Amino acid sequence: MLGLISLILILFIPVIFIWLGYRSSKSFKDFH
C-alpha cells in the first residue's frame, strides 16, 4: 500500500510541476 502511494507521488509530482509551469508560462505570454 505504501509502495503504491509513493509510486503515485513519484509519478504525479513532476506532472503537477510541469502543468503549473506550462500554465504560468501560458498566462505570462497571454499577459504580454
UniProtKB/TrEMBL annotation:
Sorted UniProt keywords: Membrane, Transmembrane, Transmembrane helix
TM stretches of this protein: 6-22
Superkingdom of the source species: Bacteria
Name listed for the protein in its UniProt record: Uncharacterized protein
